[in-house]
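Section 5: illustrative case.
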């Protein structure tokens, strides 16, 4: 028997159970030992019976003092064993249904086990009935002596996904055996790689064990990451040795960090860059100053400060006498960037132009702008996809920044913009969305992550609420000098579904709940110019409340807004809700997000629960992925997305980066893996049938 033998030959499994296990994707021994738990049950605390005051799950331990059984209803019997510890007695109960016409003895096993004077650990739900403590056993384990160390108690216990005919207990026991006998043979390649030594990843044999049987959650997580790192590294080596790889291209533009503009800009900022911002700026500058064109994705949660990172890159281009362009998904956002840039770069000698369809509408504007973009008078072009129109000619654009890239498919168009130069490309996104992920994994796109928010931010407090409470909170925030958004899913009531629409509601609310405050309205059917005016007015505090549709979803930055109310929150996906919430909590003041929904749907409830539980965009994206299932993940199954056992393509984005770099180094050193130190790696690559080889084939 080895790692790749079929599980049906393992003790206690056999052909019938093996076929059930295959429903869980478990066919080989390797599949079994890498069938990692979904979660862990905490059985570290063994509670003495005098410490149980409330109903709940507990682990208890004691010596059996007696047992009895009786029928408590027709067809229902109970078996009770009294278990004593130093502080009292607790009754362990088992309920069994039985057929009154059959002689089958439902308690035969339990009766044989629960005999007087044996020591037993029990996990289950405790209740106190008429002063008596009882526990309905969900799991138990006997030990010979009081001090013997139990196998499944006093520790974290893995919880596995199940399928019909396969119980938790069965999996616990067969996996335990298999891990004991086979984990020692699991191939480890990380240990042989010099550059990873200082990361101290766990050896795979140990990682496999620890993922199932960790001492603590953090040990489990480190073991998982170690295993994931090996998965990612193998995939990356496979990808990078593949023949049809797209490469970063040689470029003409050359940058030198002159600081003529960069220093002036830094001095104008009223805050310090965060550590994470400094790090990603360094990564971007390293790319830009290299001989190859940049192809980098900047990921950072909403409010993490991507804009000034982009501006740093833009100024590096401009101080080297090139043009730079930033492309935003909406006019409002382009306008906002324009104002931000204008403001920060005031007194600094650069020319900025806004290039959107509404700007291009007026003939005079159009001619002026197009001319100064073409002759190089304009250094920074801020726009929407209008920037990519045929009639827009640049003098020498060397850097393109694409903000919130997932809103439209700009990749190809962006490349077409090059017009001679091979521009450096920086994509920015708050949500690690599938397309972005696919690129980070497969493509030539490097990733920088801002994993830190500017200081003084408190997480946005998120609650599910009713309208009454929400509006009261809005009013109290306004009283404290804040401003609020109220967001609706629809623009008007042409939709037959009975939803509160922004237009109708703005009218109603400004006469009722908000009759003493100033209410503005913003929706997608307004003209761009109107929208901008409203947004600017809101920013200038001419309104207290802005009633809006999701046009505000992306990027809007009004740090004084401290409250957002989302109507019909169940209508929005997690990514949108997270973006919406990101409109507040952008200043030092504590902010609130009130979600209003009367949906009873399971899925909707789950989404809202996730929103109230975390403000971490990566966790939300990851939960989103979990909820939708990997098959729905942009049809990843069709794309042949690799199925990682431990790797999580969202959570582990930094590991993926490390794997990419490490793979690149290995390949540049020894493309054919001929060196002795890569022998193990080579064997793995030549093998078939293993999980690893499946990952590699996908690549
Ligand atoms: P996003 O990453 O969502 O695009 P922005 O770039 O709009 O975030 O930044 C959010 C807010 O945080 C802005 O008001 C910006 O001025 C501010 N900000 C950015 N970096 C810092 C920093 N290092 N310290 C304090 N505030 C910052
Ligand atoms: Mg932004």
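Designed sequence:
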């Amino acid at each position: 028997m080895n790692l790749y033998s079929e599980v049906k030959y393992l003790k206690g499994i056999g052909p019938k159970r093996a076929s059930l296990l295959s429903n869980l994707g478990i066919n080989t021994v390797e599949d079994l030992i890498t069938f990692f738990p979904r979660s862990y049950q905490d059985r570290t605390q063994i509670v003495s019976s005098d410490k149980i005051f409330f109903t709940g799950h507990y682990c208890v331990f004691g010596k059996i003092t007696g047992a009895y059984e009786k029928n408590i209803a027709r067809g229902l019997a109970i078996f009770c064993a009294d278990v004593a510890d130093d502080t009292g007695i607790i009754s362990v109960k088992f309920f069994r249904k039985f057929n009154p016409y059959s002689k089958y003895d439902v308690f035969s096993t339990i009766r044989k086990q629960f005999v007087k004077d044996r020591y037993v650990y029990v996990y289950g739900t405790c209740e106190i009935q008429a002063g008596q403590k009882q526990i309905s056993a969900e799991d138990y384990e006997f030990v010979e002596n009081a001090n013997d160390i139990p196998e499944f108690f006093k520790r974290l216990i893995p919880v596995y996904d199940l399928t019909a005919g396969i119980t938790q207990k069965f999996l616990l026991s067969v996996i335990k055996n298999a891990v004991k006998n086979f984990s020692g043979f699991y191939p480890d390649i990380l240990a042989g790689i010099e550059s990873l030594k200082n990361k101290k990843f766990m050896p795979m044999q140990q990682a496999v064990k620890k993922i199932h049987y960790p001492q603590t959650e953090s040990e489990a997580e480190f073991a998982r990451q170690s295993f994931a790192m090996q998965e990612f590294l193998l995939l990356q080596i496979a990808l990078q040795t593949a023949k049809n790889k797209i490469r970063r291209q040689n470029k003409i533009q050359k940058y030198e960090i002159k600081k003529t503009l960069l220093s002036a800009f830094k001095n104008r900022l009223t805050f310090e860059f965060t550590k994470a911002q400094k790090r990603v700026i360094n990564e971007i500058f390293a790319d830009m100053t290299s001989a190859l064109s940049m192809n980098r994705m900047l990921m950072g949660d909403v409010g993490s400060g991507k804009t000034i990172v982009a501006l740093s890159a833009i100024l590096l281009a401009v101080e080297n006498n090139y043009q730079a362009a930033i492309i935003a998904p909406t006019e409002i956002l382009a306008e906002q960037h324009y104002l931000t840039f204008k403001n920060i770069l005031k007194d600094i000698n650069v020319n900025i132009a806004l290039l959107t369809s509404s700007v291009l509408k007026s003939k005079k504007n159009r001619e002026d702008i197009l001319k100064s973009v073409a002759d190089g008078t304009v250094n920074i072009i801020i726009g929407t996809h209008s920037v990519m129109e045929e009639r827009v000619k640049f003098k020498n654009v060397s850097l393109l920044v694409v903000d919130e890239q997932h809103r439209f498919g700009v990749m190809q168009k962006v490349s077409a913009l090059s017009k001679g130069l091979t521009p450096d490309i920086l994509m920015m996104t708050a949500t690690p969305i599938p397309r972005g992920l696919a690129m980070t994994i497969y493509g030539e796109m490097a990733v920088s992550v801002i994993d830190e928010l500017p200081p003084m931010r408190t997480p946005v407090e998120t609650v599910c609420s009713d309208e009454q409470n929400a509006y009261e909170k809005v009013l109290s925030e306004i009283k404290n000098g804040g401003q609020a958004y109220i967001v609706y899913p629809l623009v008007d009531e042409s939709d037959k579904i009975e939803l509160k629409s922004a237009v109708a509601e703005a009218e109603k609310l400004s006469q009722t709940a908000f009759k003493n405050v100033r209410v503005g309205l913003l929706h997608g059917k307004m003209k761009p110019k109107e929208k901008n005016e409203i947004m600017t007015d809101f920013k200038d505090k001419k309104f207290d409340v802005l009633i809006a549709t999701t046009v505000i979803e992306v990027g809007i930055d009004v740090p004084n807004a401290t409250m957002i109310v989302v109507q019909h929150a169940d209508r929005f996906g997690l990514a949108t809700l997270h973006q919406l919430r990101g409109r507040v909590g952008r200043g030092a003041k504590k902010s609130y997000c009130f979600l209003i929904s009367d949906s009873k749907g399971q899925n909707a409830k789950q989404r809202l629960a996730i929103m109230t539980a975390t403000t971490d965009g990566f966790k939300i994206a990851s939960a989103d992925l979990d909820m939708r299932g990997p098959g729905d993940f942009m049809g990843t199954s069709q794309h042949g997305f690799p199925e990682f056992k431990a790797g999580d393509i969202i959570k582990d984005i930094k590991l993926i980066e490390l794997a990419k770099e490490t793979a690149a180094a290995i390949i540049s050193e020894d493309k054919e893996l001929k060196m002795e130190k890569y022998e193990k790696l080579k064997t793995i690559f030549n093998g078939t049938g293993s999980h690893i080889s499946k990952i590699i084939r996908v690549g």
